[in-house]
Amino acid sequence: MTAPNPPQPVLRGMMLMAAAMMVLPGMDAIAKYMATVEAMSPAQVTFYRFFFQVAVTLPVLLVLRGRKALTARKPGLNMLRGILHAAASLTFFVAVKYMPLADVFAIYFVEPFILTALSALFLQDRVGWRRWLAILIGFGGAMIVIQPSFEVFGLTALLPVLCAFLFAVYMFLNRALGDADSPMTMQILSGLGGTVFMGIVLAAGNSAGHVDFALSLPANAKGLALLVLLGAISGYLHLLVVKAFRMAPLSVLAPFQYFEIIAATILGYMLFGEFPTLSKWTGIAIIVGSGLFILWREQRKTQKETV
After folding, report:
1. SS3 273
2. What's the rounded mean pLDDT across residues 285-290?
3. CB–CB of 88/166 below 8 Å?
């Protein structure tokens, strides 16, 4: 017997998620280009990422919903989301300045393992020994990718792990918010929170004389256009992801996140001449396999609870 085709909304959600995951690494490729070719500091790039996210999405929000769209039930939590997202983006953008895109993405994908562990520790979610084993194996795969990078880049190779932790906490906060506010309102307030936070961090880092926090303006029209595109991808593609998750279950869409590694590898090779070694591909395969196993176990658990 053939498996039934997925319902149309679920199929559309899958298509939206796949498209978003193939395009989102373009944001990180722009960040790497701005840092390595245009010589703009990662902190400055992160500031512009959130600033232009607000600049390109706020007019649309006001046209669609008017001033009431800026009224949120939980503004403080939404701003905190932006701060966590900005901190995660900063660590990621610093990492991609010095490391290959695919390596950074591979290490970052320990995030589902961290989120699962946090759920078990703080939300009392039941996590069996098989999933704990998958978490350990997944971290082992990350170590395979990190180890040669650590020898070359030092502690910078651990920045994607910090990014994964910050993003896992950000996801936790999304649970706390639930459906209190619309996705567009959440994006605007998150962008505002990230912009204010990065303005403070950028000023402090620049005062300390750190090269990765240097203040700068776009050197030319091309640089400005890329920064605007960076904000647009950030704002609208994340809205696409939110829409996808409203059409299809998490267990169906989550595996599509690994498309980002494929897109990052392609962009890294085409734009920067980077390509993972065989040992790094082995680590990537272990991380992806462990993550998919955790998702499969979560799906089985959900099915049993609904029977």
Report:
1. coil
2. 84
3. yes
d(Cα 240, Cα 46) in Å, to the nearest integer? 21
Residue type, 26: G
* Segment 48-106, tens digit of pLDDT: 999 999 999 888 878 877 777 677 777 788 888 889 999 999 999 999 999 999 889 88
Which structure tokens are listed for 62?
């006001």
Kindly give the residue spans of alpha helices, DSSP state H, lying in 208-258: 221-232, 238-247, 250-253
Nearest-angstrom CA–CA distance, 145 and 157: 9
Residue 254, both tokens = 């989550």
235-263 pLDDT, tens digit per residue, is 888 878 877 877 876 656 767 777 888 88
Query: Per-residue DSSP letters for 31-72?
Result: HHHHHHTS---HHHHHHHHHHHHHHHHHHHHHHHH-GGGG--
Q: How many CA atoms lie within 13 A of 30 on its CB side?
A: 25
Token pair 């403080």 is found at 76
Inter-CA distances, 56 with 194, 225, 232, 233, Å: 15, 12, 6, 10
Q: Is 247 helix (H, G, I), strand (E, B) or coil?
A: helix
pTM: 0.84
Say if residue 1's pLDDT is above 50. no
Give the tokens for residue 98. 């010095």
